[in-house]
Amino acid sequence: MTLDPSRTINGSFCKVYQNGNWILNAKGLELQTEINYEDIIRAGTRKVGKKATTIESTGTMTNYKVTHAWVRSISSIKNDAKGSFKTELLVEINDPENPNGKAWIRVKGVQFSTIPILNYEVGQIVEEELPFVFDDWDFVTKK
Predict the structure, then answer these.
(1) Model's pTM, two decimal places?
(2) Which of 53, 60, 110, 115 falls 20 to 30 Å from 136 in CA-CA distance?
(3) How far is the C-alpha of 63 from the C-alpha of 116, rounded, in Å?
(4) Phi/psi at 6 (nearest 5 deg)?
């Protein structure tokens, strides 16, 4: 059996939502959870064992710069009385050529790691990269 190329997921059919609104300018998203291990030295062997101890979730969203809305929201951290901007993202994967790849992923407790004030080059489309940490994620059933 060989791979059917039409079944690979096309990123053009992935969407990111925040507060129920489709983030139209999102052009890329990366989500990952790193599993951290501690070495366990065992008697009777030179082989070091590994014990899973913690997990840490990070992500990056890349957007076309259309407004300063993200910068304004993330900048709330500058106000000592407010604290950090915390939100939730919902990701839709819906490539029409791969119905088995359809999924919704809820990303909970998103907190951004940097404030992308501005990054531009003359003659280039302006983009913003938004690295973040998050508390948890899960696949959800969407009707």
Answers:
(1) 0.88
(2) 115
(3) 11
(4) -70, -15
What is the residue range of 85's domain? 5-140
Q: Are 114 and 131 in contact (CB under 8 A)?
A: yes
Q: How far apart are CA 98 and CA 10, in angstroms?
A: 9
What is the three-class DSSP state of 69?
Answer: helix
Whether the per-residue pLDDT at 143 is higher than 70: the answer is no
Alpha-carbon separation of residue 95 from 11, 92, 99 (angstroms): 8, 10, 7
Q: How buried is residue 34: exposed, middle or buried, by Cβ count under 10 Å (0-12/13-18/19+)?
A: exposed
What average pLDDT does the segment 83-102 reach? 93
Partners of residue 81 on adjacent β-strands: none
Model pLDDT for residues 7-44, shown as the tens digit of each residue: 899 999 999 999 999 998 999 999 999 999 999 999 99
- The answer to whether residues 136 and 106 touch, using CB atoms and an 8 Å cutoff, is no
Paired residues of 124 in beta bridges: none
Provide the domain count of the chain.
1
Q: Centre a 10 Å sphere on the Cβ of residue 59 and count the other Cβ atoms it contains.
A: 21
